[in-house]
Design a protein that fits this description.
The complex is a heterodimer of chains A (about 220) and B (about 270). By secondary structure, chain A is an all-alpha fold. Helix content of chain A is about 80%, strand content about 0%. Chain B folds into two domains: about 130 residues, 3-Layer(aba) Sandwich (D-Maltodextrin-Binding Protein, domain 2), CATH 3.40.190.10; about 100 residues, 3-Layer(aba) Sandwich (D-Maltodextrin-Binding Protein, domain 2), CATH 3.40.190.10. The chains are: A mainly alpha (about 220), B alpha/beta (about 270). At the A-B interface, helix 4 and helix 8 of A face helix 4, strand 9 and helix 7 of B.
Chain lengths: ~220, ~270
Amino acid sequence: MNYVFQFNVVWDHFPELLTGALLTIRLSASAMALGLCLAVLCAYGKSAGPQPVRWLVSGYIELIRNTPFLVQIFIFYFSLPVIGLRLTANTAALLAMTVNLGAYASEIVRAGIEAIPHGQVEAARALGLKRLQIFRKIIIFPAVQTVYPALASQFILLMLSSSVVSTISAVELTAITNSLQSTTFRSFEFYFVATGLYLAMALAFRAGLSSIYWAVFRRGRPASR
Amino acid sequence: MKVGLRLAVLAMLAAVPAMVLAPSARAESTLDKILKEKKIRVAIDVGNPPFGVLDKDGQPDGSDVAVARQMAKDMGVELEFVQVPSTGRIPSLLAGRADVTIASISVTTDRAKAVMYCNPNGALSIVIFGPQSVAVKTPADLVGKRVGITRATLEEATVPKMAPQGTEIVWFDEIGATIQALLSGQVDVVAMTSFAGKTVADGNPDKKIETKLNVTTAYYGPIVRHDDFELRQWINTWLFINAQNGTLAAIYKKYTGLDLPPLPVF
């Protein structure tokens, strides 16, 4: 094949690609924060809540983990308007990503919670700590620390799978790339550069998550006091 | 002396890639390859009624699919379909996954920079349509409306140019998603071919979908890679014969319900 690569077209449109990458970062970072909160709530509900709550959480986790992400996005964007809830593409994307991450991450967090020795909780109770205090200081903090690498991987995976939200017209990196390649017909060049941008974002997120780990778990470690 | 030797070595080094890369004789053309392997690979888009659809048995059908079948039959080679979404029609050809794309690709000068057109095999109109309740009579009425379009289509090339400032254009990757956005009310109106619009309107009578504006009319034809002149010439010969004997018109009538307008050639 005699294909002549023309990357100058890509550089002409590079600011647009960066705008798309910025939305990818914003969506991913927000979904990571919200999804982690949801995951902690669900993990607590599943390991310490009353039976109906456990059932509810299990149902949610199984439903999300056993259906395709694309279908979940379609439901948030195309089906919710039927019951009168019209979300913009970005809101629907963020919601779908949060709900999706929440299900996967809550199983990871729950694994961390179950790794906490029971005696440690009993000791805290004997010392007169309140229920919420025990959960915060004795359970969730060490639990998240234990499973942090697995959580970080899940976060990166979420960032990469955000490329799917272009199907519901959210204009993140993949959407911008698709638009540009379909109007300039330089698909190889644009997809190469988009791949590079995704790689750079994944490495940046990894570095960011590592520094969060050091800042939170290595420096001000309350349990060691 | 020494300088002269260096130059000679440099010249020899420079000549090596040229010798390696230059074809020894005329390279085998795509048409030669098709005839030798007795197989033509045709990229089609089966998500775009009435040009390409899947029938009840999941088999490709539609006017462009029928053209591809007849063409391969007359060429005397086996036909292999390469199913692509609308965004993949040109990339799959450029990547060498298909020899020719027959998927209602309307002729535009921008696309001709990337691929080479054969003569047209049909004509289509891009229209804006939506539910009766949305009032759009002139392009100016589009201001403040959400207009759904599909990437890598003629509407993507034309609607943003005709829509006045203040129109909110919403891009989708596939025609199916664009249609779904209209039906679920995520967009006010959509732009696509009049045929697709009719299919949507007929399938959802409760939505009272009607044509609002005519955007453009265009001719569409098969595309091949730049340099594939032999293949293009064979396809043009086939198009000429089948325009004369009425085969193209019969296929067009069968799938669109309309008479094929006269097709100009270039």
